[in-house]
Amino acid sequence: MDDSPILVVKALEAGVADEDIDILKGVDLAIRPGEIHAVMGPNGSGKSTLAKVIAGHPEYEVTGGSVGLRGEDLLEMEPDERAQAGVFMAFQYPVEIPGVSIANFLRTALQSRLEDGEELDLFDFQELLMERMELLDMDVAFAQRPVNDGFSGGEKKRNEILQMAVLKPALAVMDETDSGLDIDALQVVARGVNTLRDEDPEMSVLLITHYQRILNHIVPDRVHVMVDGRIVESGGPEVALELEAQGYEEYRKAHAA
Amino acid sequence: MTQTAVMREDVRRAIGRTAVLEEGAADPGWLNARREEAWDIYEATPLPSTRSEEWRYTDVARLLPLDELEPAAGGPARVAALPEGLRRAMAQDRESAGRIVDVDGRVVSVELDEALAAQGVVLSSLREAARAGMPEVESLLATEAVPASDGKFAALNAALWSDGVFLYVPRGVRVDRTIRLSRWISRPGTATFTRILIVAEELSRLSFVDEILSPDFSSATLVNTAVELFSRGGAQVQYVSLQRMGEGGVYLANQRTLAERDSTLDTLNVALGGSVGRVDLNARLLGPGANSDMLGLYFGDSNQHFDFNTSQDHVAPNAHSDLLYKGALDGAARGIFRGIIRVHDGAQGTDAYQTNRNLILSDEAISTSLPNLEIEADDVRCSHGATVGQLDAEALFYLMSRGLRREQAERLVVLGFLGEVLSKLPLGGVVEKVTQAIEAKLRYV
After folding, report:
1. pTM for this prediction
2. Which of B395, B403, B419 has the CB atom closest to A95's CB atom?
3. Domain span at A207
4. Does the residue A1 lie in any domain?
5. Measured between alpha carbons, how far is B49 from A82 in angstroms, rounded to an integer?
């Protein structure tokens, strides 16, 4: 098995485009195939920015460092090219797309992965979608609803997981997928991620979270603590437990500029 | 008009009293009298100017050289074979209960399911129905719904209409499949005047799709339509207008819906083609329990100009109307929506809603939205709202983050935005046809 990292983040600096404020101030991170990394941190630490920069959100501007995906320069790619290359970000706030059904959206997303002139087989797609929904224990009628339109918080997150299950990314970035979820919804999301990983042990996960809670359900290989745009501590799952006991205050004090 | 003016216009068959007389040659007396009266009103009525509130954004004098147009329908219909564009559009339709084909303002064919005809359903050229002495034509044509007194173009149409459709569905008869009118305009620089008169008797049901097509024209070409829809007690009527003309097409329509007690009279206006489209739609809720859903969808690009002027007249108490018009505007297109809900004195228990939403796809496109309320009763539920927005960057990013290219993402957002309207009136074949037409336009975006 190739053990070289799928994702390498080096000295990454980034901020909001058009604003002269650095949010990420030199982040280093390497994730190997099949690994689950959790990045934890207080509000405003930059952890969500890291997720969005990896996905290519136009609101953020990279001012230094690099992000490589299997040796390719991710920062040179458009968001759609990153997705094609295997990156998937589960949004913290999934966007409503009125009038576009989940099925139609996913069909277009899969079609976009084909060569020009190649047509997605609709029967195969239908079969895949049904199979994925069954895997996640979802009602088939769900796929006919307009994307996130009028969804509850839990439904939006389930929709993210369904998309992930259909698109089968090499690297799943989960941007605070757990925030705002009750324990039942959290378990559904965790079960989805675990099921997909059982299916594809090579799938890597970057889990951005504020709370330790989700790590009881999705067990990380590595936990990083981010404070003020830098990773200040990395270790095994025990780091999350320490954090839970102490809170972020200790880190904040220790790393106050 | 002076005698010399009449003579001069006569020479080139221009729009004038001679054309009125020519139209009426073989028609019954009452109709000729109505045409003459309408022409008098036309002459006495000034062309709408941008100084009037209702025409402020549509300068007809500039957009339409009325004096240079020639009435399209001269003499009887002569059509050897249907034009390719028309046949293509017709081939897309699903099965119908009946179909009328109209070329350059003349009906060239009428088909109606025999079982329906046996039940008393009438689908006919309006001209022939008038000549055949259909009592509803004499009593309802240009009288209650779109009389000549309604305005300059209503008068012009009442004077000069060449043909159109008469559809009559007797009490209790349910026409489950759609009845279609397929219209084709072939000659540039002409003016076509068409009328549609539909009467749905008590507890009957029908749906009607009116599709207007033409090739691209190098000069302004007018299609003027007067649509008169009557739904009697408990009847259910759906009328869809699909305006898919080519460049140069100027589409002016006066639509009136008269909904009686417990009846449903829904409309959908789709504007995709032509250079100028102006629809005046007035929905009248005349009996308690009457209901009108009013849907509109427009997608303009290049220099297209769409203007919708709607009114919801709640005359009777306890009636319901719900308007949703959505438009996407690209290039240097212009969209105007002006709507008013009028709750008349005594129309208690009215439920009336009005929503206009616009999606702007370019820097040069302009959208103007003017919703309005006029309420003279106190126990009513009314709301109106308008939005003008641009493509949401967050939505595009969301879609692109799943692998969609930017143009695929834009297409999906626009189709979804406009598709909401279609999903509310899923008539056989209309959704697919309109979706395809929108997609074809999006390829140029």
Report:
1. 0.85
2. B395
3. 7-256
4. no
5. 55
